[in-house]
Amino acid sequence: LLASFTAFFAIAATIEAISERAPAFCHPKRVSIRHKWQNGGFEYGFISRIPTALPYSAPQEDLYAAIHRKEYEMKKVNTQHSKPSDPVRMAVGYAIEGVRKDLKLAKALRRVYEDPGSAANPNARPRSAEETEREAKLLEHGMKDATMRRGSFIVDIKRKSLSSPGETFAKFDDAGLVADAMVSLGADAVFVNVDYHAYGGDMSELRSAVRAVRDVSDTAAVVMKDIVVDEIQLGLAKEAGADGVVLIASVLGPALENFLDQATCMGLETIVECHTRNEVQAALDALAQNIMVSNYDRISGEYHMDQAYKLAGMFPGSGGPIITLACGGIETTDQMKKLLAVGYDGVVVGKAVMGSTRAPEFIKCVRDRTLLPAELSQWGLEDVEFDMDGNIMPGPKKDVPNPDD
């Protein structure tokens, strides 16, 4: 009996010590359980939260801990920006009148400034008689937008990530310097992570990146990436000069549509990050214009490397109102080519190019080629590559002997 009491008090003391050392990871009110199953190769799931009398602890912050921490942080931020005359509060409450015509982020992702025939390009040249005739024929056969595409390359600037617990894979003094370098190399847009605990960045780096990108490019876009849980974060992004913000479907859930509406009223573009088929459908139903499919499951912390590839067929064809991006664990140029070939308009790469000399290789791989229309993505032509003029590139092809290699 004495031994049992001794063991009980030892366990209680251990739990108390853990709670004191890691309060950020202990949640005494509830824990969350992920229920998931697979059907036809796709992952489905839902989340349920059950009350618990004991706190639980984790060696590394997971998504739920990050959300709770962010909600607590935003209470302080709301207090700091509570005055009606505060610039951030004004950004949240200010509504853009009329229809926005700039859409800098969307134009950067479409690379319309490099297409002299695009109607969205302010410097577009008049169409020739041959081009007008060709467009009329395509329209007659219902394939007006079925033209060669240009892929975009987006750099995810971060020092660490929730997907790589305990790992710092990039060390730099200022995200602005990195953004300057990446855009100078040809990146169409940059994500600047502003959550210090999860990604190692902050709002001052977002402002620095905006200034740096504006100095080197009139067309590249800057996007704030954060664990968005409060509308005040949209105001912070707008006040810092960002062109857009990333909204995570698994974080916002049913509130996603409200955040999309709020951002639109503020004149802020959005990119909705999704992982499952249900999340993509929810984003489509909410009329999201830019959708990013991630191979990384933020809830379970697992990678499903073909998830974006499998979900590519959920989107409309080329030239439609929806711009699609793929991300999550992209480490090779072959992965990028595969995702672009099945219809994605661009790829987002972080760890593979951060602190790496391979950044020019990745950017060149995306920008120095054209892509078949998304309508032809299921024709088995994924290995066929085209140059900027739409001609088939003879080589090099991986593991295929060729005189031009």
Structural class: alpha/beta
Please mark out the parts with pLDDT under 50 across 5 or more consecutive residues, or reply none: 5-59, 396-405
Give the tally of β-strands: 12
Helical run tally: 15
Largest sheet: 8 strands, parallel, barrel
Protein described:
By secondary structure, the chain is α/β, with parallel strands linked by helices. It contains 15 helices and 12 strands. The protein has helices at 2-21, 63-80, 87-93, 104-110, 129-140, 175-185, 196-199, 203-216, 232-240, 249-252, 256-266, 277-285, 307-310, 333-341, 359-367, and strands at residues 30-39, 42-51, 152-157, 189-193, 221-225, 244-248, 269-274, 290-294, 296-297, 302-303, 323-327, 346-349. The protein has an 8-stranded parallel beta barrel with strand order 3-4-5-6-7-8-11-12, surrounded by 8 helices. The chain has a two-stranded antiparallel sheet with strand order 1-2. A hairpin with a 4-residue loop joins strand 9 and strand 10. Helix 3 packs across helix 9. The longest helix is centred in the first third of the chain and has 20 residues, at 2-21. It is globular and about 60 Å long. 38% of the residues are buried. Mean pLDDT is 78; it is low at 5-59 and 396-405.
Task: Briefly characterize the structure.
By secondary structure, this protein is α/β, with parallel strands linked by helices. It has helices at about 1-20, 65-80, 85-95, 105-110, 130-140, 175-185, 195-200, 205-215, 230-240, 250, 255-265, 275-285, 305-310, 335-340, 360-365; strands at about 30-40, 40-50, 150-155, 190-195, 220-225, 245-250, 270-275, 290-295, 295, 300-305, 325, 345-350.
